[in-house]
Every structure is written in C-alpha cells, then in structure tokens.
Design brief:
- The protein is α/β, with parallel strands linked by helices and 319 residues long.
- It has 7 helices and 5 strands.
- A 5-stranded mixed sheet has the order 2-1-3-5-4.
- It is globular and about 50 Å long.
Length: 319
C-alpha cells in the first residue's frame, strides 16, 4: 500500500517550478502546426507555475489530499451516476479549427464510454490489470457550445484562452459545469487541465481541436478522444501514473510504480525499471500512450476521482 498521506505532503509541498510555456501567443512555426507524434500534456507544468504564482494553492491542494484520503478510508464516496454538464469554448482562426458539433458530440460520447466502462476496448485481452478495472460512473452531457473567431495561431499554456482580456472566452458557471476550451495550444502540447484547488476563473481543460473527438479533424494517433479522458482525469485530481518523477507516485494504491511515461503502444508484459520491476499499467488513461493503447482507469483512481465530489470535496458543487 502506498503511504497516501505522506506522499500527498511530499507531492504538494515539494513542488518546484519546471518548464515555462512552450508556445508564445500569436507565434507560429512548423513544429506547432505539425501533428504531434507523442502525447504532450502540460497539466503538471501549468500546476508548477500556478503554485509559484499563488502562495495559497499548495495549502489548498494539501487540504484536498487530506479530504480525499479521509473520504477513501471511510468509504464515503458519491454513489450512483454523477452528471456533469460540459461547455465547449471553441476558439478558431481557420475553418478547420472551428470543428463541427458532430465532432464535439463524439468527444462527449467517448467520455461517457470511458468513464462508464463501455469503451469497446475495455475487455482487451492480455490485460494483467483486468481485476482492478473501474467503472467510474460519471455521465457527461453537452450543455453549450460557444464559438469565437480569433487571429491567434497558438495560445500557449498560460490560460490566455480562458480570459476575454487576452482574446479568449471566460468560463461559464465553472463551479457547476466543466469548461472545455478547444484551441490550438502549440509547442507540441495536446492539452492540459487545471487540478482541483485552482481559481474558478481558469478552471477546466484546454485541448487542441485536432485531438478532440473521433471524427472531423481528429488526428492519428490521438484520434480516439482519449486526450480529453486523460485531461478530465487530471481535472478530477488524478496524477500522471509515473507521478511526474522517476519512479514517482500517483497517490493511488492499486497502480504500479512506473519509472517514466510510456509512448506509442508498449508490448504486452512491459515492466518498470523501478524496485521490484512491476508490470506497468501502460493501458491506463493517465499514461502517455497513443489513444489506441489506453483503455482503463483503476478502482483506486475511481475512488480518488469520486472523493472530490463528496460532501466537503473540492468539486462538491457539481452534485
């Protein structure tokens, strides 16, 4: 068993600033416009910057970890199916970036399948972790689509797309609705999310139009809508499965220790180089594999996600 409380303190209080934004607003180059070949999620980098800018965020996140661990240990987790309204904020410069309603709906469909164990690859053979696969039990509904034309070629990861003062779209009812910004982020970043505890003015996920949904402009190998599944996982307080450190911890009891991220689709039986060389859960949505290589959350991740919606949880207002 992982020492949840100790690791929570280490993760929250031990944060340090890492990478700066990988794309500058309004700047474009061939790298930014080329489809990504490896998954790039900037959630942790954005978190490091927010921790530096907001002295109170570390304490709020530590309190969330304490509440999460308590809810899990006492078994007081939300029962039944929680329904989350989704607001798509589409920022487009080209017609290709102004993706269709059908493409947006296909993303909602993927989220509903992945969070309810209804995805067609859920029963993939040779999964060494089939015994801990989770049906999270959260439903997503398309609430609203807001579109705005822009002259920006890329938005970066400094939340500019979430502010009208910088040409973006302000979030709609962020304490009761999941805001999903569709825009070109740039710098090889597929998307990023804000973890629980951050400002409601920037709360939600931001994902490139090319990695949203399963139709239209959705681009291989991230054309199955799993970028949103991954980022919404962060929004619900899940860490990357390798803990964003060599042999780090994701603060989940039933996931193995990974030495680092996995890319592509690892071979069956792939093992970690960490102590004990455990089989890695590379099919987990919180790894960096291609969309076709990820197809499950674990029961421990389920408990961690649902804890934030519990009474006293950081997203209890969604109930």
């Amino acid at each position: 068993m992982k020492k949840i409380m100790v690791l929570a303190s280490m993760l929250i209080l031990g944060f340090s600033c890492q990478n700066e934004d990988k794309a500058i607003e309004g700047e474009t180059n061939s790298k930014e416009l080329t489809a990504a070949t490896h998954r790039g999620c900037a959630s942790d980098e954005v978190l490091q910057r927010q921790l530096k800018e907001d002295p109170g965020l570390a304490k709020r996140m530590q309190d969330i970890e304490v509440q999460t661990a308590k809810a899990i240990s006492e078994g007081r987790i939300v029962n039944g199916v929680l329904e989350i309204p989704v607001v798509f904020n589409v920022l487009y410069r080209t017609s290709a970036e102004n993706i269709s309603l059908a493409q947006l709906q296909s993303q909602i469909d993927v989220l509903n399948k992945d969070f309810n164990a209804q995805n067609s690859d859920y029963n993939t053979a040779n999964n060494p972790y089939s015994s801990v696969r989770a049906n999270v039990g959260i439903r997503f509904v398309l609430d609203q689509v807001i579109r705005k034309s822009t002259t920006k070629t890329s938005w970066g990861t400094n939340n500019a797309m979430k502010k009208t003062s910088t040409g973006g779209i302000a979030p709609t009812s962020p304490t009761t609705k999941l805001n999903y910004w569709v825009c070109t982020i740039g710098g090889g970043i597929l998307g990023y999310a804000q973890f629980p505890g951050g400002s409601s003015a920037t709360d939600g996920v931001a994902i490139d139009s090319r990695y949203t949904g399963t139709t239209g402009t959705a681009t291989y190998p991230f054309n199955l809508g799993r970028t949103a599944t991954h980022e919404v996982g962060h929004w619900m307080n899940l860490r990357h499965i390798w803990g964003d450190a060599t042999c780090g911890s994701d603060i989940v009891s039933d996931t193995p220790t990974h030495n680092t991220a996995n890319y592509g689709v690892p071979a069956v039986g792939h093992r970690s180089t960490c102590s004990g060389t455990p089989l890695e859960m590379y099919m987990n949505y919180m790894d960096y594999t291609d969309d076709r290589g990820m197809y499950m959350f674990s029961n421990g991740q389920k408990s961690r996600m649902l804890a934030i919606f519990n009474v006293g949880g950081s997203r209890a207002s969604f109930r």
